[in-house]
Each structure stands twice: as structure tokens, then as C-alpha cells.
Automatic annotation (TrEMBL):
Domain of life of the native organism: Bacteria
Transmembrane residue ranges: 12-29, 41-60
Name this protein carries in UniProt: Transmembrane protein
UniProt entry keywords in alphabetical sequence: Membrane, Transmembrane, Transmembrane helix
Length: 67
């Protein structure tokens, strides 16, 4: 499961970066539609969730050991 989350995090980061680049390109041609402006948010929230999971992962054995 951990390997799958790490791989998903990598692919989400590629998706997030491409939506941000597309956002800047769209802004160069004028006011972009709202769906282009808000398109980076779903990958960003998924990146946050998977990043927090991977951040807590090294501390999980210590938390279990204390109980």
C-alpha cells in the first residue's frame, strides 16, 4: 500500500504541475474560465492527503509502541 501511495503522489504532482502551467498559459491569453483557474485544486488536495500520510508514516511505529 505504501508503494502505491508514493507512486500516486508522484503522478499527482505531475498532474498538479501541468494544471498550474496550463493556468499560466491560459492567463497569457486573457481572462481564463473559472474551471481552468480552479483545476489545480483537486490534485492539490490529493497531494496534501498523500503527503500528510507519508509524513506521518515514520512516526506510526513509535505511536503504536507507546500504547
Amino acid at each position: 500500500m505504501n508503494a502505491w501511495i508514493r507512486q500516486a503522489h508522484r503522478w499527482l504532482s505531475i498532474g498538479f504541475t501541468s494544471t498550474v502551467i496550463a493556468n499560466f498559459v491560459a492567463m497569457a491569453f486573457g481572462e481564463p474560465p473559472a474551471w481552468v483557474v480552479y483545476s489545480p485544486l483537486p490534485p492539490l488536495f490529493l497531494l496534501m492527503a498523500s503527503g500528510l500520510y507519508m509524513f506521518v508514516l515514520p512516526y506510526a511505529p513509535r505511536l503504536r509502541h507507546r500504547r
